[in-house]
From TrEMBL:
It comes from the Bacteria. Residues 549-868 form the Peptidase M1 alanyl aminopeptidase C-terminal domain. Keywords: Aminopeptidase, Hydrolase, Metal-binding, Metalloprotease, Protease, Zinc. Gene3D superfamilies: 2.60.40.1840, 3.30.2010.30, Neutral Protease Domain 2 (1.10.390.10), Peptidase M1, alanyl aminopeptidase, C-terminal domain (1.25.50.10), tricorn interacting facor f3 domain (2.60.40.1730). GO terms for biological process: proteolysis. Residues 444-542 form the Peptidase M1 alanyl aminopeptidase Ig-like fold domain. It is an enzyme of class 3 (hydrolase). Residues 85-186 form the Aminopeptidase N-like N-terminal domain. One of its GO terms (molecular function) is alanyl aminopeptidase activity. The lineage of its organism: Bacteria, Pseudomonadati, Fibrobacterota, Chitinivibrionia, Chitinivibrionales. PANTHER family: PUROMYCIN-SENSITIVE AMINOPEPTIDASE. It catalyses: Release of an N-terminal amino acid, Xaa-|-Yaa- from a peptide, amide or arylamide. Xaa is preferably Ala, but may be most amino acids including Pro (slow action). When a terminal hydrophobic residue is followed by a prolyl residue, the two may be released as an intact Xaa-Pro dipeptide. Its cofactor is Zn(2+). This is Aminopeptidase N.
Amino acid sequence: MSSPSVQRRSDYTPPAFYVDAVSLDIVLADHATRVSAVLQVRRTTPNTAHMTLHGHPSVVLEGVTLNGTPWHDFEHTDDRLLIRNCPDTFELVITTTISPADNTAFEGLYKSAGAFCTQCEAEGFRRIVFYPDRPDVLARFTTRITAPKKEYPLLLSNGNRVKEEDLGGGVHRVTWVDPVPKPSYLFALVAGDFDCLRDYFVTASGKEVALELYVDRGMLHRAHHAMESLKHAMRWDETRFSLEYDLGIYMIVAVDFFNMGAMENKGLNIFNAKYVLADRETATDQDFMNIEAVIGHEYFHNWTGNRITCRDWFELSLKEGLTVFRDQEFSADRGSRAVHRIKNVRMIRSHQFREDAGPMAHPIRPEEVIEMSNFYTVTIYEKGAEVIRMIHTLLGENRFQEGMQTYVRRHDGHAVTCEDFIAAMEAGSGEDLTQFRRWYSQAGTPEVRASYEWDRAQKTLRLTLCQKTPPTADKSPKKPLHIPVNTALFSKTGERIPLVRAQTRQNEVLSLQQATQTWVFEEVDTAPVVSLFRGFSAPVRLIHPLETEDLHVLILHEEDDFSRWDAWQMLLKKEIVAMVSAMQGGKTVQVPPSVCEIAAALVEDQSLDPAFVAEMLTLPAESELAGWFDTVPVEAIHHVRQALRDGVAHGCASVFSARYAALHQDSFEMTTAAMAQRSLRNTLLGYLALVPSGSDQVAQHFAMATSMTDSIGALEAAIFGGCSCRDRLLEEFAHRWSKDGLVMDKWFSLQAVAPAMDTLKRVKELMNHPTFDHTNPNRVRSLIGAFTARNHRCFHAEDGTGYRFLREQIELLNSRNPQVASQLIDPLLQFARYDLPRRTCMVEQLHTLRAMPDISSDIYEKVHKALKSSADS
Ligand code: B3K
Ligand code: ZN
């Protein structure tokens, strides 16, 4: 095949023709759905005679009429329809036929467990009908859906239901009008038979909004948490951002087959059922929190994404970075801020830093894209959110909100750019963000090196910070960035020392703007401990030569819980790196007593949030540890991590056991406090499983479990503790839940991440389990994805079996569902960081993939970039 083409941000041109309104008439049928689109078109560029519409090879063109007469002056290629010699304004009717039942890619209109549903972002609408499928064409949509009433009693689309008709012969038709102009990627349609949970919300200005949550029949009892989450999100957006919902109805539909988490279609969100359905028997506390976050995220898009959308897909972070920042703040305001921050930072450090260091490195506003679906990345989303958070840190909450109000006032109803956002933030706050803009155009993780000198006689502290961003695969320029450094000083006994310069107390946020910059603080009359990047105030790698004793001071006395955790991470890193080199030097590995002492002290401290203590006890994953080494010592990091867990478990057994017992809950509650207790109790169980009699305790925990959180806590402890009860518990669990795919996903994942060397064999057996379904993305991710992305040691087995397995799975998925194939491939792209035999084998798999005759653009882009980076190096 010819290489898929590259799109460039610099090639943007405004649309030559605008669609003011579109009326869709869709007659649903599995293999021959007929779509007719009536477009009211207006020329916007005087000298352009021809109008371009996007399409897809799977769409059959039936006919074109222009101003009521059949039109033959057009060119039709696989993915384009060029209407030639158009008048200035006209009505264009395009009729197509598509086959939703054969759509295994789950883009456009497809069938999910007997229901029709759509996924149009980024470029799925063109798989339904030819259309200017670009986010800067905003039209008013009217949608008429016709289908058999018995199978599809519910026919949903965006906006308001204006008409219902019985056409006789068991067929009905529903018409929807969406009053708000929108780009085609926000179009949605659902047809099926669902149960509906109804509620309502009264907005701050007193408008009543109908809330409708559609779930598979019989699942209503699992829909309440999602509904409550929606109402919390709506209220929160009013109070924190002064943003109110605009329409009279908000619908959410949960479907079983979905490529990602959820989709913010205007007024009709479509969700992966995983992010809707929950009750305490089937969902863990973490699932409950994830649901609230995703429901919030999609709801917040109504302003940041839908009413103000992106000019083109290079600007994706405009809506995603900002909306992730908003959902993170929502979760932080609703629960424990520090714990949420820790989880976000773990994600950035393990996934985003890796992306920045790999062949797919890109700035949060990319310059070049082959397949847009590949750019829904941790960089665009999570680093994008960190960039918004830095603006928030520099401006403070009040000025940030003034900037947001300016953004909304200026751009409501438009398709805009990241530059428009920054300009609005500047105008609203009065802050100059000229240099800050570089975060949008430079890829890579900056390294900040800290050094300092305390002058006892002068009572001054000279703090010097140097920044440098290493080169990245995309070769974007690297200039000094504007980096906010939230800073605090503590005495060696833990008292806070104020930041004073020129005899004035200083703000805690330093602006690092040059390659090297020095600050001199006065009135520092005792040797200080310097705490930098408090709250992870910038997405950088900090190189900070803190002595172990200083780290102890921060772990015990930092006022910011996130920074306590971060100091603990620095200490663990020091110890783990030393243990790895001891192991590689053939020495015995010793767990330093101070690690056990700190762990025990944390667990004994009743004043701490138990969820925070649980985070402190959770060691970095092997995949994160891998990022600490130039050449990843696969086996050593596995054994060292294991030794550390064993050492802590044995060293702290009595303290852990006592606290475990004290955390017992007599009754189940779904409060933040109760969830925090369960989190710590299950984390402690993971350690107790490693000491003698651990297996009995785990089995008892499983038997007494009154929630999925505790059942999974026990299974996880049994698997990672190698407990003798493991197989029995797994069997009991499967026996109870084998009919429930979402619950069984947890069971698949746990077995896939098991560190035992025969795990791959087990994964292959599980692929034949009756509940496994290779066409369902959730099943694929929970079994195959968990093994390849989260079982670092087994995936990187020296004999290459893990690599070959992933290559085979990608071959199978490449044409069936390229997006899911592309989600899975990332661990194979990391070859540059592994030893020669592993690297050679990984590169071989990539070559095999590149030779596939029907390679999708999704896989092509990643494989091509990875092999290019290997040739360049
Ligand atoms: N905007 C969607 C993601 C669409 C992904 C398309 N491949 C969900 C979200 O970020 O809210
Ligand atoms: Zn989003």
